[in-house]
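Handout, section 3.2

Students often ask what a structure token actually looks like in practice. Rather than define it abstractly, here is a full record for Oil body-associated protein 2B. The first block is the sequence as you would receive it.
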Amino acid sequence: MSSSDQNPGATPAAGTAGAEPAPPGGPTAVSSQVLDMGAQMVQALKPVRQMKLHACSFALYAHDLHRQMEVHHFVSRLNQDVLQCAVYDSDKPSARLIGVEYIVSDTIFEGLPPEEQRLWHSHAYEVKAGLWTAVGVPEALQSMEMASLAKTYGKFWCTWQVDRGDALPLGVPALMVSPQAAEPGRARGDLVRRRDERYRVDSSAGGLKAARVEMDEPEWINPNADYWRVHGKGFAVDVVPADMKRHAPFP
């Protein structure tokens, strides 16, 4: 059966690894465009309009840390301690929705069961190293938010592995983790350089990293998070047949 640690079987939707995947299908019909325009005038789209922040960073596959992607989080706040992020592969109009990340404060994280904590990653290094940044927002304006984010934990499921050229979301979700200071969890230099050049960001030792050097760090990072650092193992999702639960006899 399908596993997030294996490539799916060949399909007509498969693209070329490393290239921007183009989903199969025809151009959007005029009737669909008219419906979309009309819906914009009468629908509030309240959940979508709660996305107030665009942040760019990098993510690694929990089962293969050598596979890394630039990721774009569009963030909405449920409250000060819980964020939910729609994650895209870019900020272009044609961007693919590749997953979702949930972010919680350290206080909430400490209340989770140990088995659940193992699926989460810390953000302290990612923030302090200048990898996570609110695109286009001056550092002076985002500094308080970054200090708060450094003490959070995230759980990120990737549903569309565009980095291997998938033109559709194939297979099962893959758990993702954040970059860390230790190999093999460091963000690839070429990915960081391309991001920095595109958005005119300086995440070097003389840029964001220097600006955040005095930022308070968490008193401790729970060892159940960033599971691979302690145990040298990641997580992959396997799909297996299971007996259906029957609350009433089938006809």
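Discussion prompt for tutorial groups: The first helix runs from residue 30 to 42. How would you have guessed this from the sequence alone?
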